Amino acid sequence: MSGAERSKSKGSRTEEFLGIRNGDLVAFIGGGGKSMLMDSIGRRLVKEGRKVLLAATRAWRLPENGAPTVFLTGEQPLGYLKAILGEHGIVALAPERSPEGLLLGYAPGALQIFARMADYLFVEAEDAEGSSLPDPVGKRSIPVGTRVLLMVAGIDALGPDLDTTAFAKRLTAPDGILRCRPGLDRRILLLNKADRNSKRKDAALVAKKSLDLLGEGAPLPKVILTSVRDYLRPLA
């Protein structure tokens, strides 16, 4: 077994931290920094020897200086994509670009062909329309074959009109992100933009109240408090 194969078999630091495994299709839902998190977590995995594809089931925009983009449909040859992925380690996929400059998404059932080409396929699966705590009705499209659900909410949504209790109630509402796909065995709540100590305290309180509202017997997600800045730091 090569060194790279041994590394994959035992899991990298990022894989162990998030609880993801080689070959996973990870769907990102919610709001508050999904695209940047997809790109930055993907880049950490690349530093750890993994290859990552990014895609979406909706129109989306990569962060500035994000992963290189390949415009590809299922009917086109995949050799070019393999070459770019081999060169960069991370590639964003889209069938085409909209007149407004957004990357268009794929149908939820059209992505599994790409999942076999990389160690991870990250898919943005909800249109948050710029909101850190979006109203999800009709705006969520989770791809076929999803193994991990990464549920993102930006703690910056807290304010005079939304305290920690109201925030938790939004997360646990019937159509809230914490009620999505309860049958999946790996679901991660990532409370993002907690980049100051006071924000981390608020995020911890939101997490506790959310888990209390879900109640005993409900499937509980893994909860991570973080900020995009954490994922952009070089690996120690």
Q: Could you name the key traits of this structure?
A:
236 residues, Rossmann fold, 8-stranded parallel sheet, globular, disordered C terminus
Overview of the molecule:
The protein has 236 residues and is an alpha/beta fold. The chain has one domain (17-232): Rossmann fold (3-Layer(aba) Sandwich). The chain has eight helices and eight strands, in the order ααβαββαβαββαβαβα. Strands 3-4-2-5-1-6-7-8 form an eight-stranded parallel β-sheet, sandwiched between helices. α6 packs across α7. The radius of gyration is 17 Å and the shape is globular.
| CATH topology-level name | Rossmann fold
| Element string (H = helix, E = strand) | HHEHEEHEHEEHEHEH
Structure classification = alpha/beta
Note the overall shape: globular
Strand content: 15-25%
Number of helices: 8
Overall pLDDT, averaged? Answer: 87
Task: Give Rg in angstroms.
Answer: 17 Å
Work out the helicity level.
25-40%
Gross CATH architecture: 3-Layer(aba) Sandwich
> Tally of extended strands?
8
> How would you characterize the largest beta sheet?
8 strands, parallel
Give, in spatial order, the strands making up the sheet with the most strands: 3-4-2-5-1-6-7-8
Please indicate the count of domains.
1
Uncertain regions spanning at least 5 consecutive residues:
231-236
CATH class: Alpha Beta
